[in-house]
């Protein structure tokens, strides 16, 4: 299945065979890569994601009998049948927990969703840090919003999808992934303020500048529910408490050295005095500043100038947040040595993908360099593809 082909006919035919009736419609929601601003969203900071052409696609029909039926074209198994009245958070429902969690979140928010039949397929690589789970959540939320005529905005849908992942699935993610899937537009990166969810669509037409943004999927799977993500979130929250702010977004970059000194001088033996917390604070405050620098460069028309900022961001993720891995580091080291403008890991870390900003003419040679470096290191071959800023969630 092509990453950019949304197989509506096949999806409708399979839905009809599964459920004995046609769907009311077909919807799509994309995965994303984040250009800059990592682990800043739950700190009420700034992020800059763009939607990928890879999507989760859902054929959906409304039901009003309290039954939710779910089927995936990508995972072997029968139709999962659930009662909407009996949906239970943290029940370890596998892939079905993501769409089921959205139904639960909608109903928990007071929306009278009486059930649905869904058949889903996705071209978003799983475990690659490209928000495959958010795509599943957002496509479900948009379809049910339309079918039940709920009138919810993209922002409201994203927040409900985030609640599904936080409270139902049990991953304490911020709202970036869901907002990117719901609200991105073609040819733009989304400058998102994660405090008030205000957005600005920033033009990002790399082709016009002779550039490309490559995604290198290391094929190292990450699992953010294993506690590492939650531990870093808790550390950021501890740092904010120790600094007397509600979120790390409120620590000005110019005051970062003084803030780190205050954490070093903490004498109450709290977790905020821990060296890890200082590293987390340094990363978040500096990455918020990197978002501001990238915005300024893009506004000035200096797209190539963002390359070193990306590479600087990777060093922070590697050394301060410590969420990189040898494969991601190898990508960044290899492409930078081979002439890329800049590179960094993207997403939650512990595997997943890196992004590479490069001259379009160098894409093939950089891809070959990474493939050869992985082979020499004994790693599985990576998957490399261009990240084209694409459309957010929509009805097909």
**Strand neighbour order, sheet with most strands:** 5-4-6-3-1-13
Main sheet, how many strands, which sense, barrel? 6 strands, mixed
Helix content: 25-40%
Q: Shape, please?
A: globular
Q: Which regions are unreliable across 5 or more consecutive residues at pLDDT < 50?
A: 1-5
User: Strand-residue fraction?
Assistant: 15-25%
Describe it:
- This protein is an alpha+beta fold.
- The protein is built from eleven helices and 13 strands.
- The chain has a six-stranded mixed beta sheet, sandwiched between helices. A four-stranded antiparallel beta sheet has the order 10-11-9-12.
- A hairpin with a 6-residue loop joins strand 10 (342-346) and strand 11.
- Helix 2 packs across helix 3 (132-147) and helix 7 (256-264) runs antiparallel to helix 8 (275-299).
- The longest helix has 25 residues, at 275-299.
- The chain is globular, with a radius of gyration of 21 Å.
- Mean pLDDT is 93; it is low at 1-5.
Quick rundown:
By secondary structure, this protein is of the alpha+beta class.
Q: Which key features would you list for this structure?
A:
6-stranded mixed sheet; globular; disordered N terminus; 4-stranded antiparallel sheet; 396 residues; alpha+beta; 11 helices
